[in-house]
Amino acid sequence: MSTIAVLGAGKIGEALLSGLLHSGRPASELCFTERHPERAAELTRRYGVESVSVGDAAKRADVLVVAVKPQDIEPLLAELAPLIGPDSLVVSLCAGLPTALYERRLPEGTPVVRVMPNTPMLVNEAMSAVSAGRYATPEHVRTVAAVLSSVGKVVEVPESQQDAVTALSGSGPAYFFYLVEAMIDAGILLGLPRAVAEQLIVQSAVGAAKMLADSDEHPVILRENVTSPAGTTINAIRELEKHGVRAALLAAIEAARDRSVELGRAHED
Questions:
Q1: The Pyrroline-5-carboxylate reductase catalytic N-terminal domain covers which part of the protein (predicted)?
Q2: pLDDT recorded at residue 165
Q3: Do residues 99 and 114 make contact, with C-beta atoms less than 8 angstroms apart?
Q4: Cα–Cα separations (whole angstroms), residue 5 to 47, 209, 214
Q5: Among the four 58, 158, 186, 198, which has the fewest Cβ within 10 Å?
Q6: Residues 95 and 221 placed together within one structural domain of the fold
């Protein structure tokens, strides 16, 4: 089995570590880097995974998963460049950063696979999209997909589509959390206790998601099945359309896509 090093144990890095452990991968096959000692010690206590330096990670791991913030990528790649060769597989989880950036900064021939995951990997329900860089082979992509499939579902896309993926599924959980938050507030406005409103909405979200996942029906059909003539639901849908919720959602996802593009451009030579 490959040893995996997670470079940067922020939210998404921690989510990957947690998901891999929950899927059965032993802590001995994992390590991570974290520049804040207190944070590193906390994660080691929580997961039993060793915190190491970037140099030790490069020596120990076959797969190096880069999960730092985009603004921290340049110093990390400068540190990593003299330490690795074409036998190391670099996996980028950084929003907006193209594989070409890594290929310019790392030794010639270093295989890079770009990934856009999301935080539900904490509960083994991630949606990850993978794209091969210039030197990554189909075998490299299969290796990354195998790692990620242990924490959710995986789809392969051309790298040109990664900014759209980032906006849609990478940021997607936040949109659902935002909607659930608003619906809980609505329940409170209607006189329900917060705990009751939360239970009603969260379970409704879980059930609706399962119906979407398990049914062959289009979301429009599923929605229409709940929408009786002159009933409560159609009145609610009318208000959503009146307030431009659909258009606002389209604009929001376009804005997220545009920001992903900006992050990549910020590192162009």
A1: 3-96
A2: 97
A3: yes
A4: 14, 33, 35
A5: 158
A6: no
Q: What is the tally of structural domains in the chain?
A: 2
Instruction: Look up the pTM and report it.
Output: 0.90
Q: Is residue 120 part of a domain?
A: yes
Residue with tokens 């193209």: 98
CATH code of 216's domain:
1.10.3730.10
The domain that holds 39 is classified in CATH as 3.40.50.720
- Positions of the chain with pLDDT under 70: 1, 269
113 labelled as ligand-binding?
Answer: no
The boundaries of the domain holding residue 59 are 4-159
Are 124 and 220 part of one and the same domain?
Answer: no
* Final residue belonging to a domain, choices 138, 159, 180: 159
Q: Is 70 annotated as a binding residue?
A: yes
Q: What is the pLDDT of residue 22?
A: 86
What pLDDT does 245 receive?
96
Give the list of residues 6+ apart from residue 215 with CB closer than 8 angstroms, or none: 222
pLDDT at 1: 54
Q: Residue 37, annotated ligand binder?
A: no
- List the one residue out of 2, 253, 149, 58 whose CA is nearest residue 245: 253
Instruction: Tell me if 40 is assigned to a ligand binding site.
Output: no
Domain membership of residue 268 (yes or no) is no
